[in-house]
Amino acid sequence: RIIAVSNQKPMKGCMMGNRVADAGGFSLFGMTGAAEVACPGCGRSGARDLGKIPAGYLFAGRRLEQPMPGGSLYECVHCALFFRFPRPSADDLAPLYAGGSLAAWAERGEARCDWAIAAAWIRASLPHGGKVLDVGCFDGTFLDRLGGDYERCGIELHPEARAAARRRGITIVGNGLCELAGHDGYDFVVAADVIEHGDEPRV
User: Which residues, 6+ apart, have CB-to-CB distance to 111 below 8 Å?
Assistant: First the structure.
């Protein structure tokens, strides 16, 4: 079973949010255009350009030495997804996320209603425990609320967040989405606040 939720809040210098995703396209500080912009959600062309996104100096709670180009905000006329194009490549984004401030993503678990719903679903489906993978587990707060009856595993990019998750008893099995392939045998896979950061959220 797979649970995918998003509760991102807008942050200065980067475009994130519910139903907002990044679409592939530019090397970090060099933009490349496209004759037709394909929606990263449904894959079809015909997105409507809603206007320019200003360049930003802030990313994940820290100031960049050079501004990140903003690109444009688009709306897919087919599936109504809002997305940014062009965007940095995954290789460009990885060190930015890894070097971000922990405080930029810190969440109080009790404030996340979506986490409570997901945890209740897992407990109801697996009342006697099971194996759960959280893709983008951050400091392990979500998995921690499941309790010790579950084998709790996580994938996390940020090194300090990985260390915090391990201190909570979470087994870290990878550092990024590219390491998700080959992981099987899980009763539940959770991806909270992750899909909108991927090149192809529909995948």
Answer: none
